[in-house]
């Protein structure tokens, strides 16, 4: 498919595609209508090894790379974007911070069940007054003896309030630096902690089968050893976490574009007007051709960025190069996905506006791709800065 994919990646693709067609596709529309988070399917994904694709064998993982995770997310997202984001957030925002910054005791406590898909973890960054401006974090954590006392709120947090959510890692102010700026750290707060509440799930435009909640903390106490990583390094940690996440979101967007192309091709060959299939009409055929171009370009950008992650350890790729590639992939693929759903809906005409056709669900699901894990505006800012422009 691309030069960045190895035979083992294509083997994984075939396995995940078969799983998605059998276990997800027949139910996706109903889950969407019911706003149902399918815990049983999450467990099956765990049994298939999807949550452990990039985790070490010591914790039950498959020791794969970011390319493998992107392949799995793309194939799930091709059928149901809600399930695709469940995997993306569970690994990129749930498992990876613990794996990257956790001490041995934290890894041994949390990772086995997370890697097995028995439990899920969330990452609480966004707040009512702190989204793209994460430095404006208002949630506070005060060290009281041997405990952190956390007060504040988070919003739009994925996998944070399901029946199998075990822990949420949150960013919080833990002090003030000498320059007057806030010291931000990350703290792990287990589900069920007194004072920690996952509020009622959102009534969202899309991603209806994904678990998303606002969170509140009112004197929530956790042991001091629940600090994740070095105190005061929470801001840097979340920035690094988001680099991988942007590539994974791009993969989810690729799955969306592929679905739009698949649906449009099938419908254009079946729908008859003026004595023939609408695919004979240039107005339709050219739009579908545009979908193919967007798909190829988005897929290449995404897997180039994913493969560059492996080059960081060897020194073949610099962090600056990876960040640029991740931002470019996220920006182009997600904006293309939104355009692709608009094109597919237009190909379907009036039927595209009806919820009985999956194209309507993909249309609703796509917009958030341009917002979550860094808006399109943030990606453009990062790319411009990487080019040496002093953009604010």
UniProtKB/TrEMBL annotation:
Cofactor(s) required, per the database record: FAD
Record SUPFAM superfamilies: Acyl-CoA dehydrogenase C-terminal domain-like (SSF47203), Acyl-CoA dehydrogenase NM domain-like (SSF56645)
Key word Oxidoreductase present: yes
Domain Acyl-CoA dehydrogenase/oxidase C-terminal residues, every copy: 232-387
Superkingdom of the source species: Bacteria
UniProt-listed Enzyme Commission number(s): 1.3.8.1
Gene Ontology MF: a single term: short-chain fatty acyl-CoA dehydrogenase activity
First-tier enzyme category under EC: oxidoreductase
Residue ranges constituting the Acyl-CoA oxidase/dehydrogenase middle domain according to the UniProt record: 123-219
InterPro entries, per database record: Acyl-CoA_DH_CS, Acyl-CoA_Oxase/DH_mid-dom, Acyl-CoA_Oxase/DH_mid-dom_sf, AcylCo_DH-like_C, AcylCo_DH/oxidase_C, AcylCoA_DH/ox_N, AcylCoA_DH/ox_N_sf, AcylCoA_DH/oxidase_NM_dom_sf
Keyword annotations from UniProtKB, A to Z: FAD, Flavoprotein, Oxidoreductase
Pfam families the UniProt entry points to: Acyl-CoA_dh_1, Acyl-CoA_dh_M, Acyl-CoA_dh_N
Domain Acyl-CoA dehydrogenase/oxidase N-terminal as annotated: residue spans: 7-118
Family from the record: Belongs to the acyl-CoA dehydrogenase family.
The name this protein goes by in its record: Butyryl-CoA dehydrogenase
């Amino acid at each position: 498919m691309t030069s960045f994919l190895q035979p083992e990646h294509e083997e994984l693709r075939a396995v995940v595609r078969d799983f998605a067609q059998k276990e997800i596709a027949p139910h996706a529309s109903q889950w969407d209508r019911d706003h149902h988070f399918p815990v049983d399917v999450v467990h099956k994904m765990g049994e298939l090894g999807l949550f452990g694709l990039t985790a070490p064998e010591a914790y039950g993982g498959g020791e794969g790379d970011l390319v493998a995770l992107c392949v799995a997310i793309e194939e799930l997202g091709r059928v149901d974007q809600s399930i695709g984001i469940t995997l993306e957030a569970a690994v990129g925002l749930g498992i990876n911070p613990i794996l990257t910054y956790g001490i041995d005791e934290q890894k041994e406590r949390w990772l086995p069940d997370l890697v097995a898909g028995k439990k899920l973890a969330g990452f609480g960054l966004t707040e009512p007054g702190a989204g793209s401006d994460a430095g404006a974090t208002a949630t506070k954590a005060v060290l009281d003896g041997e405990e952190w006392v956390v007060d504040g709120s988070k919003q739009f947090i994925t996998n944070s309030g399901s029946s199998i959510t075990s822990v949420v890692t949150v960013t919080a102010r833990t002090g003030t630096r000498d320059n007057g700026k806030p010291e931000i750290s990350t703290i792990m707060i287990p589900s069920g902690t007194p004072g920690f509440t996952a509020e009622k799930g959102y009534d969202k435009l899309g991603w209806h089968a994904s678990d998303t909640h606002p969170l509140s903390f009112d004197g929530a106490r956790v042991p001091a050893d629940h600090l994740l990583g070095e105190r005061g390094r929470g801001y840097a940690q979340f920035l690094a976490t988001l680099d991988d996440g942007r590539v994974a979101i791009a993969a989810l967007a690729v799955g969306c574009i592929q679905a739009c192309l698949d649906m449009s091709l099938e419908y254009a060959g079946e729908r008859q007007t003026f004595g023939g299939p609408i695919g004979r009409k240039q107005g339709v055929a050219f739009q579908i051709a545009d979908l193919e171009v967007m798909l190829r370009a988005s897929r290449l950008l995404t897997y180039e960025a994913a493969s560059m992650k492996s080059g960081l350890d060897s020194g073949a790729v610099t962090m600056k190069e990876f960040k640029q590639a991740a931002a470019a992939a996220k920006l182009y693929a997600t904006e293309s996905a939104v355009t692709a759903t608009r094109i597919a809906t237009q190909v379907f005409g009036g039927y595209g506006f009806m919820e009985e056709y999956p194209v309507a669900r993909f249309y609703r699901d796509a917009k958030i791709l341009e917002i979550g894990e860094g808006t399109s505006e943030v990606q453009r800012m990062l790319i411009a800065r990487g080019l040496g422009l002093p953009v604010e």
